[in-house]
Amino acid sequence: MHCPFCHAEDTQVIDTRTSEEGDITRRRRRCSHCDKRFTTYERIELAMPVIVKKNGSRTEFESSKLRGSLMLALRKRPVSADAVDAALQRIEEKLRSSGEREILSGQIGELVMRELKRLDKIAYIRFASVYRSFEDIAEFRDAINEVDLDPKAAKNSDKH
């Protein structure tokens, strides 16, 4: 670590403390050259993976876009803001914990569909119809049958 005062490279850690939450380490350091002291902080940095779109282009993950997609599917549906926030958190946690530097947009779409299926059957069908580009009534019927046959989706839908 370079000294912020004289820019010498030789600094020593004289005290280390971890925050109560355990997510930040505070270090007091002393410069061997100018003898001044300073504090540094270490935090875990978990970066979201870069999104690889269908056309091959890459873009940064934007939580607001994910929320917008969910909210569009859930428009005028009886789903609480807390339930939406929890779904967003689960999706983001899966992306973060994947350890991948890049992820296909289709994988995110599948995560969204899984969460919508848990939240609201109608929202799931809305999203699926656009995401999977339904072209005829048979594809709608298949998606509806898929939701009707899923016991988890039926249970969660009854809670709202």
Explained architecture:
By secondary structure, the protein is α+β, with helices and mostly antiparallel strands. The protein folds into 2 domains: 11-43; 50-158. It is 47% helix and 19% strand. It has 6 helices and 6 strands; from the N terminus they run βββββααβαααα. It has helices at residues 63-73, 81-97, 105-119, 121-131, 137-149, 151-158; strands at residues 11-18, 24-31, 37-43, 50-52, 58-59, 102-104. The strands form 2 sheets. A 3-stranded antiparallel sheet has the order 1-2-3, with no helix packed on it. α2 packs antiparallel against α3 (105-119) and α3 (105-119) packs antiparallel against α4 (121-131). The longest helix has 17 residues, at 81-97. The chain is elongated, with a radius of gyration of 24 Å. The model is unreliable at 153-160 (pLDDT under 50).
Average pLDDT confidence is 86
Secondary-structure-based class equals alpha+beta
Largest sheet: 3 strands, antiparallel
In percent terms, what proportion of residues is strand? Answer: 15-25%
Q: Give the strand tally.
A: 6
Radius of gyration: 24 Å
Shape: elongated
- The number of distinct structural domains comes to 2
Distance between the first and last residues' Cα: 54 Å
Count of alpha/pi helices: 6
Spans where pLDDT lies below 50 across 5 or more residues: 153-160
Task: Summarize the amount of helix as a percent range.
Answer: 40-55%
Biggest sheet strand line-up: 1-2-3
Order of helices and strands: EEEEEHHEHHHH
